[in-house]
Amino acid sequence: MSNWIEQIPDAARKYLEQNRLDEVECVIGDLPGIARGKAVPAAKWEKQQFFHLPNSIFFQTITGDWGEAAEDGFTEPDMILRPDLETATAAPWAADGTLQVIHDAFDQKGRPIGFSPRNVLKRVVDLYRKEGWEPIVAPEMEFYLVARNTDPAKAIEPMMGRTGRPAAARQAYSMTAVDEYGPVIDDIYEFAEIQGIEIDGITQEGGAGQLEINLRHGDPVKLADQVFYFKRLIREAALKHNCFATFMAKPIEGEPGSAMHVHHSVVDKNGKNIFAGPQGGETDAFFNFIGGLQEHMPSVIAVIAPYVNSYRRYVRNHAAPINLEWGRDNRTTGIRIPISKPEGRRVENRLAGMDCNPYLCIAASLACGYLGMKNEIWPDKRFTGDAYEAEDAIPAGLNAALDLFDGAKEMHDVLGPDFARVYSIVKRTEYDEFLQVISPWEREHLLLNV
After folding, report:
1. Domain range enclosing 338
2. Does 69 have pLDDT greater than 90?
3. CA–CA separation, 71 vs 74, rounded Å?
4. Fewer CB within 10 A of the terminal residue: the chain, N end or C end?
């Protein structure tokens, strides 16, 4: 691969100036967002144009089982995985010089694999570009730092802070609370700087040991890449300090869940925000985007809330929306319009959980807005007041959400029919696996009482 160093980002080149390259991790995100791939010695990497993995990695459930999604029998044909050199970044926690590079998946005829999550997002972004639109997103990531949990039968507990006391709950925006796990945050900042990822801010959230990291707005694929990398970065920083980082939607009973709020705007070919008119007023495109979210979000809840645990986050009056209302600067609505100047006008989708695959979450949210603008869908009247008093508007569990997803043929055309088919099969397989597990609640309340 000639001149590859010239094609990688500045941060990766700077890292290589200070570290001898020993290994390159060739990675791709599967349906849950787990990094799959191969570690390749540096000398081999320089000669490598692509590598192979079986397409079955996209049929695998979060437990390691397999969905019956192969159309021509389970023969596991190889895909061709090609590097996107713009994604090259350091793995600063590695003992030896290591780069990570995200790859794109193609079949043996060179066609993009339709059920590869990064390809799904690229497909949606391309639909925007065909209309002369450029989507812009900014994710907000919530997660917990928790005590090491090596026994799944034990409840998850908050991590121990530097004071020797467990991280305190209900201390939102407290700087003292952030200081409790300062060493972990210091490493998050350091790793992010080495990787060339720009953090917009870190705050304490309402849960015990719960933090939020905001990223700078930008291209949807690049931001999804950053979230994909960031999850690993945060886990590594936590492990360095003898705790775990978890992105479960609801890891601790009685504490708030963790969301991935996504802010959206759309600019034209001249870089002008199409949500703002010539005099700064709100445009039809702005309202149509909101209308698309209201109309189509129920059908993609299974994508942005992908596990049985995801639905434990949707609790009335508990910092998670359970509605599709929209409001201005109103954090009880599922769709929030933050305070901004006209050129920064954006729409915040507050429904997604942090357990989502970032590529699929951003693709699904943008797809809803796209259909709203294409079909000129007008939203309901703006909600004022406490939207927890509004009617629930999202499915109550994964099985019901998948039923809505399976029936959303217009959405399948946007995300890709092949993706929709495979995703449904894999998620229903996971749900069937969950039903085979007997929970502590069942043993406590049913064993001797029914």
Report:
1. 125-444
2. no
3. 8
4. C
